[in-house]
Amino acid sequence: YNSILDDKSSKNVGNSNRDNEDGNRDTENNKDKNIRAKDIDIGNINTTTSIKNVDNRDGEEDFAVLVDDVSLEMKGLNDFPGPYVKYFLGIGLEKIQKIAFFYGTECTAICSLGLVYKCGGDVCVITSEGRTEGNIIVSDDLGTNEFGFDGIFQPKGYQKSYGEMTVEEKNEISHRAVAVMHMVEKIKDLGIFMK
């Protein structure tokens, strides 16, 4: 999406792993000139999804802000932890594996994106979602690309966990990649931010 948004764009990136995952790596062949990571103080967010919090920049003249939120729904736990996965990860991957062993390994990784931008005198919002079905794997080998639940999440139809995949492999199938693809389609369909 870096080729679609103009130079007034920014995205709120809480960590470099997320920035790498959406394909905006600062490499020789992929200079990200249009999107810049920017820390934005939007206060404490206590809702179940970031989509409810994306229009906090109404006072600015021209802007586009892209935010994301990730959920992990474990079927055996009635879709818990959902959007609280970041806090759930605090117990450690090994304990999550033990819980999955007893309650079921089937789960869904979800990425919700929200793009807020100034359109005329209004603030407009576009949302998209990407979902990847999979399982929590019970294994001692958590892979090398450990980020969040990557080491224990294995997408259906694949023999590797996200943590065992290269960044390029993961970017082809991940919940975030699917959400970004849907967002780009919506932006193109609306004809906004086109150069």
Automatic annotation (TrEMBL):
Keyword Hydrolase: yes
Keywords assigned: Hydrolase
TM helices/strands, residue ranges: none
InterPro entries assigned: ITPase-like_fam, RdgB/HAM1
Molecular function terms from GO: nucleoside triphosphate diphosphatase activity
Protein name (Swiss-Prot/TrEMBL): RdgB/Ham1-like purine NTP pyrophosphatase
Family that this chain belongs to: Belongs to the HAM1 NTPase family.
GO CC aspect terms: cytoplasm
Compositional bias per record (Basic and acidic residues), positions renumbered to this chain: 1-10, 18-33
Hydrolase is among the record's keywords: yes
Gene Ontology biological process terms in this record: nucleoside triphosphate catabolic process
Domain of life: Eukaryota
Annotated Gene3D superfamilies: 3.90.950.10
Native source organism of the sequence: Hamiltosporidium magnivora
Chain positions covered by the region annotation Disordered: 1-33
Pfam families xrefs: Ham1p_like (PF01725)
